[in-house]
Amino acid sequence: MNVLVAYYSKTGATEKVALALEKAFGEGNTVTVFRIRPEHELKAHEYRKSEKDLPLQKPLPSLKDFDLVIVGTPVWGFCPTPIVVSYLRQLQGAKGKRFALFATCTALPGTTIMRLSNILSTKGATVVDTLTIRSIFELDAEKLKPVQGFAQRLLKEP
């Protein structure tokens, strides 16, 4: 399976999950990990001031060759980051693609997964699975255990 893991991470927690996913898919699969980056880094509260899509560093990977696209975001104020929302809105070629979503948060994920799923459904994509990792402390091997099961479920999906 050819998999793209696209994520944004400000503190490193979401990146840890993305890298754990890369490892969890194991041999026999090709995993490309792509860190979504805004053109200009801002403080978290400054991203919310803009109602428009944020400019992202290019190039964004083409979805053409991927069987599965996994998108990860931290949760900010019970919502996905504006950076990941902008990424999904700017995606080309999502129609008919399989997506999975993951979020990292310290408490409640709020409407994060639902908002991302809604954007993808308007693009004709299918969200096949989701994962939320909650932790107020550093993500360690124990807290990352659900990632393995998530990857295994995704490998079993047709």
From TrEMBL:
<dbReference type="Pfam" id="PF03358">
    <property type="entry name" value="FMN_red"/>
</dbReference>
<protein>
    <submittedName>
        <fullName>Flavodoxin family protein</fullName>
    </submittedName>
</protein>
<comment type="similarity">
    <text>Belongs to the SsuE family. Isf subfamily.</text>
</comment>
<dbReference type="InterPro" id="IPR029039">
    <property type="entry name" value="Flavoprotein-like_sf"/>
</dbReference>
<dbReference type="GO" id="GO:0010181">
    <property type="term" value="F:FMN binding"/>
</dbReference>
<feature type="transmembrane region" description="Helical">
    <location>
        <begin position="68"/>
        <end position="88"/>
    </location>
</feature>
<dbReference type="GO" id="GO:0016491">
    <property type="term" value="F:oxidoreductase activity"/>
</dbReference>
<keyword id="KW-0472">Membrane</keyword>
<keyword id="KW-0812">Transmembrane</keyword>
<dbReference type="InterPro" id="IPR005025">
    <property type="entry name" value="FMN_Rdtase-like_dom"/>
</dbReference>
<feature type="domain" description="Flavodoxin-like">
    <location>
        <begin position="3"/>
        <end position="155"/>
    </location>
</feature>
<keyword id="KW-1133">Transmembrane helix</keyword>
<dbReference type="InterPro" id="IPR008254">
    <property type="entry name" value="Flavodoxin/NO_synth"/>
</dbReference>
